[in-house]
Specification:
Elements (H helix, E strand, L loop, with lengths): L5 E3 L9 E3 L5 H13 L1 E7 L5 H12 L4 E4 L4 E7 L45 E4 L4 H12 L3 E6 L2 H4 L4 H9 L3 E4 L8 E5 L10 E5 L5 H9 L7 E6 L4 H13 L4 E5 L2 E4 L9 E3 L4 H14 L3 E4 L12 H7 L3 E5 L2 E5 L8 E4 L7 H7 L7 E4 L11 H11 L4 E4 L2 E4 L7 E3 L5 H6 L10 E4 L11 H10 L1
Parallel strand pairs: 2-15, 3-14, 6-7, 10-11, 18-19, 22-23
Antiparallel strand pairs: 1-23, 3-5, 4-5, 7-9, 8-9, 11-13, 12-13, 15-17, 16-17, 19-21, 20-21
Helix pairs in contact: 1-2, 1-3, 1-7, 2-3, 3-5, 3-6, 6-7
Length: 470
């Protein structure tokens, strides 16, 4: 991991074919961690991504009392789940798990007379305190789970995460009976959330959630919906990030829970739904792989990323179609997918990136070298991610001397002569990794705060140097 205040990208002297590996998917890793924790029994995850985000998620699960075994060297995690119940008081010291919705456990929250209330449901005591850092998936997924669970749980986050959207999810949880108190600003971390004694868990059989600012709100509610004791439906407004929602639905199915779509914007989960433990292999991170694939038309060399498949759960696989439109040839082999460059300069064009918007930064970073203008459409929502990514695109391209503008959620970039500059990352890992690409062909591109890549790909620049620059 680069810990210096700046990283100067090394230009490629003699281009050569690239063959590399990337870490496991952040999106799949964090979904698998929660699905395993909600299953009844032990699950073993392999190919796990270890990064700031996943370590915060793992630490949170451990503080909630889930038995977790970790081997970073082998990239494995084993988690024992309790069928939707959260071990009380956030320890592994033999406490009785709460939320006895299945037979054989002591039930929590006193939902019927004579039941034993879960620890901390009375008296204002906090059962567990967790810190989700800057991990959006941990923040949204664990907030939904704890908001619909017995007990009181304190959740804190980084200053960056405190600024990111949470209101729509918190309103949905509140409508379902979650009791929420805010220590600082309303609808922001830190907060205390959970269910008190006598609550029924789900105050209703349906909920509506707006996903225009984050599809993770819907994914969080979908994963936690198995806690309902009745058939449950989620009505959705907005269309942002539905590829990530499809990933969530497919992973829920892999863990034994099937989601029905009564209408395009309504999801149904049966009351008998329950996750099953399993051995689960996590895919390579397509978001990370795309930085290397984008180097193919830039350097005019073939690039292979091992173990990537067209059958990927990840929406970013669609970025390969953008590269194909630019003139690249895409080929899948037994060991992964290879992108072959066009014979000359790659083509410009217009693309809708609403469903795989992490690649807006990648496309913007290589656009100055295209044969014509590049328009990146329907990306208004990326203003609300780790940073205002539209601002990050415009400010960094301007610093590179490139003409660009944004109007109604579409960023238009005109090719030009790139000049040396320092890339302002705004603490955003994807800004840092994407804008390293121009440095491969233009001298003097420096990345500020390269250590921010630790969020998902802590040795990205080392892998880049070894695979591409060497």
């Amino acid at each position: 991991m680069k810990t210096e205040p700046f990283y100067e990208v090394k230009t490629v002297g003699k281009p050569h074919a690239v063959r590399t590996e990337v870490p496991g998917s952040k999106s799949i890793t964090n979904r698998a961690l929660l699905l395993a924790a909600l299953a009844e029994g032990k699950s073993r995850l392999t190919g796990v991504l270890f990064s700031d985000d996943s370590r915060h998620f793992l630490d949170s699960l451990q503080r909630l009392g889930f038995p977790v075994e970790v081997s970073e060297e082998e990239k494995t995690v084993t988690i024992e789940g309790f069928g939707g119940r959260i071990p009380c008081a956030g320890t592994n010291s033999g406490r009785i798990p709460c939320a006895g919705i299945n037979s054989g456990r002591i039930p929590c929250a006193g939902t019927n007379s004579g039941r034993i209330p879960c620890a901390g449901a009375n008296g204002g005591r906090i059962d567990a305190s967790i810190d989700v850092g800057s991990a959006g998936t941990a923040a949204r997924f664990l907030t939904a789970l704890l908001g619909l669970s017995c007990g009181r749980f304190r959740i804190d986050a980084s200053e960056q995460m405190k600024k990111r959207p949470m209101k729509e999810l918190l309103l949905a949880l509140s409508s379902l009976g979650a009791e929420i108190s805010y220590e600082e600003e309303e609808y922001r971390f830190p907060l205390v959330i959970g269910q008190s004694a006598g609550s029924r868990g789900f105050a209703g059989r349906e909920v509506t959630v707006d996903v225009e600012k984050s599809s993770q709100f819907l994914s969080a509610l979908l994963i936690a919906s198995v806690l309902s004791e009745e058939d449950f439906s989620i009505q959705v407004t907005g269309t942002h990030g539905m590829a990530y929602v499809e990933m969530t639905v497919r992973m829920m199915e892999q863990f034994g829970v099937f989601v029905r779509r009564k209408e395009e914007n309504r999801f149904l989960i049966a009351k008998e739904a329950a996750y099953q433990p399993r051995d689960y292999r996590i895919e390579p991170d397509l978001s990370a792989a795309c930085y290397f694939y984008a180097a193919s038309p830039l350097l005019r060399v073939p690039v292979t990323v091992l173990h990537v498949s067209r059958e990927s759960l990840q929406g970013d696989i669609r970025f390969l179609s953008v590269l194909a439109d630019m003139g690249c040839r895409i080929a899948e082999g037994e060991d992964g997918i290879t992108v072959f460059p066009p014979e000359g300069r790659f083509a410009g064009g217009s693309w809708d990136l609403s469903s795989f918007s992490d690649q807006a930064l990648t496309l913007a970073a290589i656009a100055p070298y295209a044969a014509g203008p590049v328009a990146i459409q329907n990306i208004s929502h990326i203003r609300y991610q780790e940073c205002d990514r539209i601002h990050a695109i415009l400010s960094n391209l301007s610093a590179m001397g490139i003409s660009c503008a944004e109007e109604n959620g579409t960023v238009t970039i005109r090719p030009g002569e790139v000049r040396a500059c320092t890339i302002e990352t705004y603490g955003d890992h994807r800004t840092a990794m994407a804008f390293a690409l121009p440095g491969l062909v233009t001298e003097g591109i420096r990345i500020k705060d390269p250590g921010c890549c630790a969020k998902t790909f802590e040795n990205d620049f080392e892998v880049l140097e070894d695979a591409v620059i060497r």
